[in-house]
Each structure stands twice: as structure tokens, then as C-alpha cells.
Amino acid sequence: MSAAKPSATIRYTAMRLGVFVGCFVVVAGLVQFGVLPSGLGDSNFIWVVLLSLVVSAPLSFVLLRKQRDEMSVQIVEKVDRAKARLDANRAQEDDAA
């Protein structure tokens, strides 16, 4: 893995946020035009946010599978490197004792 490659976690998070924002715009438009019911009283914004979350979650699960898998691989590699360093440090301490 090269150092110039952007973090898979940041890329996945940005794409997930993009899916949410897209859903928010669509849901807000549908509520504005009366296709979807609006919230009660002043709760319209909260209604749109919650509905956008509910819609964007399964979309992200399906659409961002590749990015999620890349993120998982990157995280596992980092954890494995950290474990290897920890084991090496423990071995040095055992040799010194």
C-alpha cells in the first residue's frame, strides 16, 4: 500500500455522507411537493432527517459494498501491524529481562 493512497475509511465515510445528502435532498423535495407526508408542527426537519437516514442506510449497504470491503482490509492490515509491533516489543522486553 502506498502512502499517497487516500484512507479507505475517509473515502467510505465521504461516500456514505454523499449518499445521505442525496437522500436528504430527494426526501426534502418529496415532502415539499406533498408526495410524502410532512412532520407534525415544527418537526418537519427532524422527519426529513430520520426518513433520509432510513432510506440511505440500505442504499449505502448495497452501493458501497466495495468501499466497505476495502476499508475492512485496510483496518485489518493496520491491526495486524500493531499486533506485530506489540509482539516485537514484548519479545525485546523478554530478552532484556
Largest sheet: none
How many distinct domains? 1
Beta-strand proportion:
under 5%
List segments where confidence is low: pLDDT < 50 over at least 5 consecutive residues.
Answer: none
From the alpha carbons, calculate the radius of gyration and give it in angstroms: 22 Å
Give structural notes.
The chain crosses the membrane at residues 12-33, 45-64. This is DUF4229 domain-containing protein. It holds the Pfam family DUF4229. Keywords: Membrane, Transmembrane, Transmembrane helix. It comes from Streptomyces sannanensis. The chain has 97 residues and is mostly helical. It has one domain (8-96). It is built from 3 helices and no strands. It has helices spanning 8-32, 44-63, 65-96. Helix 1 packs antiparallel against helix 3. The two termini are 36 Å apart. The model has no long low-confidence stretch (mean pLDDT 88).
Outline the fold blueprint:
Layout: H1 8-32, H2 44-63, H3 65-96
Descriptors for this entry?
mainly alpha; 97 residues
Gist of the model:
By secondary structure, the chain is mainly α.
